[in-house]
Amino acid sequence: MNEFFQVYKISEIKALIETGIINDSLLEFLKGKIKNGFIICWLFNRVVFGLIKDELVFERDSFSKSDLLELRAFNEKEELYLWKNQDGWKFRYIHDNDENGDKIEFFDAQQIMHGTVSKTVNNTFSEIYEQIGVKYTVPQVFLGGNELSSRTRLILLTRNYLGYNEIGQIGIEDSRIVKIFTREV
Question: 75: closest CA among 59, 90, 91, 53?
Fold first, then answer.
């Protein structure tokens, strides 16, 4: 089979899915859901990657909450997705392999991320860029000790949850980030 075509395996998992509006502090809400993992923040002028440990760790100083449009905090088992709308902050939380969850079908997909060059910024982060100008800074753990090249790239692994409409057609109802890692392409 051609390496550019991939048949996705559909599997089943028990997943707990919660949605709602946040009335508390965003930071306290986030810390109450995701204890250890990663965070991606979409701001008005950039995308910021960070770590979730006892506190949020970013490569540069923090940013203003007013600049934040949406974020995804994740690890391999769960994701918290927050986005701003006219009512305030909404959320969707997914926790896989939760016995209190519902059975849902899914498939995992891998997307190649932009960036063929990596440069260490400090002990925790690396700058990823292309010669055409795409540039972002990610936690070094994503690189797993590898250097990027035209053949070794960052891969975004997403989990895509499936559902059926009223006439039985299947489609993707939601997606979450599982992890980011390197792979030869």
Answer: 53
